[in-house]
Amino acid sequence: MTSQKIVRNVGLPLVNQFLAQGYALVRILSPLKIRPSTYYNWHHWQFSRQEKRRECLKPYILDVWKTFKFYGYRRIATYSQLTNDCPKISEYMTLKLMLELRIRSSMQNVIANTKPL
Description:
By secondary structure, the protein is mainly alpha-helical.
C-alpha cells in the first residue's frame, strides 16, 4: 500500500467523523495540514479500471492456489490461459497479485549436495 492510500484510508474517516459532529470542514482540515482540494479529491476518489480488474482477479488466483497449492505463478498463469471459465492473466500480473496476497507455491527447492563424500 502506498503512503497516499494509507493517508486516505485513515484521514478520510477521521474527517467524516468530525463532520458528523458538526464541525466546519476548514477547522478540521487546518490542524491536520490537509488542503480542502485534497479532501475533495479523496472524497470523490474511485478505483481505476486497472485496480478494479486486479481486485476481481485476486479471488480467482486465491481459488486456483487453494486447489493446487504446488502451483507457482507460471502454472497459475498457464492454467488461466488454458481454461475457458476464467480470465486470462499474464505471468507477471499473477506474480504481482500473489505477492500482494502473500501466497507462495508449496514446492520446496532441493539443494544438491555437491561436496564429495
